[in-house]
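Box 3.1 A note on notation
Throughout this textbook, protein chains are presented in two layers. The first layer is the amino acid sequence; the second is a token string describing backbone geometry. Keep the layers aligned when reading.
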Amino acid sequence: MSAPLVSLQDVAFSAGKSLILRSVTLTVGEGEAVGLFGANGAGKTTLLRLVALLSRSTGGTVDILGSSGGTDLSLVRRRIGMIGHTPALYPTLSLLENLSFLVGMRGEPVDRVGDALAEVGLGNVISRQARHCSHGMQRRAEIAYQILVQPDLLLLDEPHSALDGPAGELVEYLAASVVDRGGATLVVSHDRERVSQMTHRNVELVGGRLL
């Protein structure tokens, strides 16, 4: 039996004197999509950052894609895709320039960037600066980037925010493509009904603990 792609064992996280996460245990296996729900301030984004290896826990064990085995974390992070609350694009670069730069930084060819933007419905605005694009358009561009890099682990934080119906379907297509490749997806959302249609199971974060 293969090891889970995400393994959190008795994980805690504190900020100053505030204990945000306590005794969190979660595993996500190959080919699995998991939804994460909870009230505002429950610690969902904090938990997602721990899984993304962008923050360090203050207790317990975090193993993401074998990261606890002494693997170079920069190499592990390359295998993780994340779409957060705020689009992470350079405002003065065009959509094409943004994705070409990000893909190029990975040492990968950029010849498919234009096709990926067209695939998400942005083919006629690839030269538009990100700052002149709507939130939904920027989110589509981020989806295009994840389609290009094909992460083994996809983390989504309120992925349907500011997206219309067709764009929302792109989120579901992206998540399904990762799972179908044997990867895993963890989705943070308030939209229980929609997310439940794209996940195998859901967990709830209450008072810093998973239920």
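The chain has a mean pLDDT of 93. The two ends are 25 Å apart (CA to CA).
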